[in-house]
Amino acid sequence: MSRSLKVEFGNEAYLNTCNRIHILPTFLDSIAAAAVPLAMAMLSNNPPADFGNKEEMRSYTISNTLFEIDAKYVPMKLLGEGAYGVVCSSINRETSENVAIKKIRNVFEDRIDALRTLREMKLLRKIKHENVIEMKDIMLPSTKRSFVDVYLVFELMDTDLGQIIRSPQPLSDEQCQCFIFQLLRGLKYLHSANVIHRDLKPGNLLVNSDCELKIGDFGLARTKSPRGEGMNGYVVTRWYRAPELLVCSDNYDAAIDMWSVGCIFAAILGRKPLFPGTDSAHQLELILNTLGVNHDAADFDFVTYQPIRDYIESLPDSPGVPFASMFPDANPLAVDLLKKLLVFNPAKRINATEALEHPYMAQLYDPLLDPAAKGPIDLGFDDDIGEDKIREMIWEETLCYRPGKAAL
């Protein structure tokens, strides 16, 4: 069930691997059993007489959440709810395509949240890659000057990597390899386009039953500043947060994503988080206990926040815990790649292209078939813009999916 992979990837070794492996957890069957009959029932109903009017909206309440969406979309079930939005599955009655609709409520209640929404909209319109989730549509608000909610429409995937990791289904080395290859492939493109995701974790990696993986949730993503300065260090879910963020540095780069890849890789191999810290101090302690401390290696020279530097310097040298002993059943090449990803000093950490060139990926990676982006992405705005400008730019992004619509 490899669907579009053969057409999109063209990498024969990768195709052969993905054609042999599938993710078929029982919860996928239950989702399909519930969703498909409901969708078919909705499709079998006669559409309203004015169905062709693209401006018409419909209101639905799904699990106590109001969705006001285009008439062509019929919601099916609530998929999840978080701090930045509510997501439901839906079907496009014009195309019979399953999609996910993300409602971002009261988007202008907080200027930072509004900026985050604008940034995600602009990034996903500009990024086109097989391993990045595709944004298919944005609902056109009823008025330009008074809308408060934003609805983004994405392709619908079967599940996320977090659910796969927590499931009882065993994962083969081929499946682990396939997941990490696609993640690295997407990151090579993003990083070469000047984009840092800043919130990579299993729950943000969307997966289909044929092992197709796509990077999602770009709400915290940023384009890299020229000097790598001035960015908020409080990003990335704690268990996947790089050491440079834990030591209070706001001078960081794409290496933070690579640390997250290492943590994700370890979670796949061990079927649980590697560094489940209860707070930032505990997180740093777990990392140092595992990686060890060698004051002669100059691994901590980049730590400039004096209290944390004093703490690290007070620690005795220690060897850490070998990854080979933590993952005794893993492919030795996988363990070697993991060691190169989970390096404390970001300057010594492997980057996405180097990770793809690692022997563990040798059978899958072809630089000609997995190119970098053509150039950096420019979002075209500064973070100090006000609400009125943000609102105008969100409206303009919406019109990119609705060409020819006039301002209301």
From TrEMBL:
Binding site for ATP: K103
Domain named Protein kinase: residues: 73-361
Entries under Pfam families matching the protein: Pkinase
UniProt keyword terms in alphabetical order: ATP-binding, Kinase, Magnesium, Nucleotide-binding, Serine/threonine-protein kinase, Transferase
Catalytic reactions on record: L-threonyl-[protein] + ATP = O-phospho-L-threonyl-[protein] + ADP + H(+)
Regulation of catalytic or functional activity: Activated by threonine and tyrosine phosphorylation.
Single annotated GO MF: ATP binding
UniProt-listed Enzyme Commission number(s): 2.7.11.24
SUPFAM superfamilies listed in its UniProt record: Protein kinase-like (PK-like)
Cofactor: Mg(2+)
InterPro entries, alphabetized: Kinase-like_dom_sf (IPR011009), MAP_kinase_CS (IPR003527), MAPK (IPR050117), Prot_kinase_dom (IPR000719), Protein_kinase_ATP_BS (IPR017441), Ser/Thr_kinase_AS (IPR008271)
Kinase keyword on record: yes
Family: Belongs to the protein kinase superfamily. Ser/Thr protein kinase family. MAP kinase subfamily.
Protein name: Mitogen-activated protein kinase
Species of the source: Zingiber officinale (Ginger)
